[in-house]
C-alpha cells in the first residue's frame, strides 16, 4: 500500500523537507486505508452538504486521535506547508495548521523549522550514542553489586511517613 504522504498532490512540485522523515509504522494508518475521510479543502466542499463534511471530518479527527504516529505526523505536516495545504493531517484542518505555524513562530522564532530540525538531529544523535555506548560489563557489575549491598534507591519520604516518624520521635523522647 502506498503511503499517503508519498501520494499527496502539491499545487506545484515541492519535495518534503529531508530533515523531517515521515514517521514509520508497521500497520497502515486510517488515512491510508480510508483516504476519502481525510480529503478536505478549505472552502471547497465539492457539492457535499455541510453536515456530511462535518461528519466526515469528525471521523477523520477521531481516527487521528488514535493514530500511533500522530505527533510525528503533525510535525511533518506543519514543516511541509507547500504539500499539506489541503487535507486533514494529524486531526488538523489547513486553517488550524496555519494557526499552529503562527504559534511556532511565536515560540521558537521565524526560523522555527530550522530550530526543530536541530532539536531532532540532537535527539537522534543522543539516541545513537546511547545505542553505541552501552554500559560496559564492569559498569553493569558495579551497578548490580551496589544494588545487592545497598538495596534499591531510597524513595522520597511521604508527608504521612514524616508525621509517623515525628510522632515516634516525640513518644521516644517523652519515655526517655
Ligand atoms: S495522524 Fe491521521 S493523518 Fe496522520 S498518519 Fe495518522 S491517520 Fe494519517
Provide a descriptive summary of the structure in words:
By secondary structure, the chain is an all-alpha fold. The chain has 2 domains: 4-110, no CATH class; 112-151. The chain contains 8 helices and no strands. The radius of gyration is 26 Å and the shape is elongated. The mean pLDDT is 84. It binds iron/sulfur cluster.
Q: Brief description of this entry?
A:
Helix content is 57%, strand content 0%.
Secondary-structure class: mainly alpha
Number of strands: 0
What bound compounds does this protein have?
A: iron/sulfur cluster
Domain module tally? 2
Key words describing this protein structure:
8 helices, 176 residues, binds iron/sulfur cluster, 2 domains, elongated
Q: What is the strand and helix layout of this fold?
A:
Elements: H1 4-7, H2 30-33, H3 50-65, H4 70-79, H5 94-108, H6 112-132, H7 137-150, H8 159-175
The structure holds iron/sulfur cluster.
